[in-house]
Amino acid sequence: MQDKAELAGNGTPFHAATSAEMRTTWWYQWDKYIVPDVYTSMPQELAAIRNAVAMIDMSPLPKMELRGPDAHRLVDRLMTRDMTRLAVDHVMYAPWCNRDGLLVGDGLVFRLADDWFIVSGETSHAWFASQAGGLQVTIRNASDDYGILSLQGPRAFDLMQAATGRDWSGLKFSQIGRAAIAGHDILVARQGFTGELGFELWVPRAAGAAVWQELQAVGQPFGVLPAGEYAVDVARIEAGLILVSADYNGAGPDPRTARVDVTDELNITPIEAGLGRLIDFGSDFVGKQALQAAAAEPGRRFVGLHYDASAIVTAAAENSACGTALSRVYWGSVPIFHKGTSHAGKPVGRASSLAFSPTLKRAISFAFLPAELSSPGTVVDVELKDDEGAAIGRVPATVVSLPFIEIRRSKG
């Protein structure tokens, strides 16, 4: 078994294939790996996600394997949803919290057998282990066992049929299937992080390059393109999908896989994250009591913001040493102000994941605002930073409902 340093040097299971497609020098560091950030053009890659089909290397996503007779009990103890409803060969998206009701992480829970689960999301190995007392369950870091190749876009079904000779229309959203591609057995989940139709292919490490090359070859009639992390980041914002480290800090003891400042001010509950629909108060889970109290309070709402991109560019040109903003998605939070009498001069909330959306042809972001300022049409001022992290002044933004686009991933 290779150690972590060797694995990082070799890249993800798809690195040999993806690196050959790079036409830029834009790489993204994700945990101990680097993956393509932009292959050719972010707008073109995003357009493939929205209008054709894109191939995306999501391999560095942390993966925890839970096995044993009490694996299901641990999953149900930690997740805010009723995990007794999760059947074998199905996936469920869920948040997990600490005892104060603060998000430790969120992600997908795969059930592959009665006593075999994989959780893919922010690293939470230490947190899971700390809550497994008295249970017969083994928790193992399985992050390097699989490559994850995400196929996203309206032609994803066509590509999968061409690659496998099978009709995949019967695989419903959040179900798991099996397939053989380029002679290799893979796991197929109807899932994704873009809001579009698509699949996540879990590929054995040694098969990565062969599977990638086969899909790329048979996908040409469907407009397939490799898409980097920049396009995926914009796509998930357009779809209203929150992301740990970008939009909140995990409240658990584990180290973060993204290089961001970890502060208590960015700890939030699932309710503040817009995930209240995923809390089942009829089941018993860690943090339930705290979340029941939080649900009775108004708290902050998770909403979207529309900006005038020209105002951002002007602010950067006039007040930034480097003169630039929005060259990529802004990871981090900036304060929001409102001119109302009771809020004058004091931050009323924060904005995160600020980006320019080629799909919408405008700048957008998420916002965490008090209930009285969360109605669509409310105008607020956001204190922006440039690409170097320096403040460049306030620009107006208008509250809108999330998601920014139509979500199509569960259709078909």
UniProtKB/TrEMBL annotation:
Gene3D superfamilies: Probable tRNA modification gtpase trme, domain 1. Its EC number is 2.1.2.10. The keyword Transmembrane helix does not apply. The keyword Coiled coil does not apply. Residues 331-405 form the Aminomethyltransferase C-terminal domain. One of its GO terms (molecular function) is aminomethyltransferase activity. SUPFAM superfamilies: Aminomethyltransferase beta-barrel domain (SSF101790), Folate-binding domain (SSF103025). Pfam families: GCV_T, GCV_T_C. Keywords: Transferase. Residues 21-250 form the GCVT N-terminal domain. Coiled coil: none annotated. Transmembrane segments: none annotated. InterPro entries: GcvT/YgfZ/DmdA (IPR028896), GcvT/YgfZ_C (IPR029043), GcvT_C (IPR013977), GCVT_N (IPR006222), TrmE/GcvT-like (IPR027266). This is Aminomethyltransferase. It comes from Aminobacter ciceronei. The lineage of its organism: Bacteria, Pseudomonadati, Pseudomonadota, Alphaproteobacteria, Hyphomicrobiales.
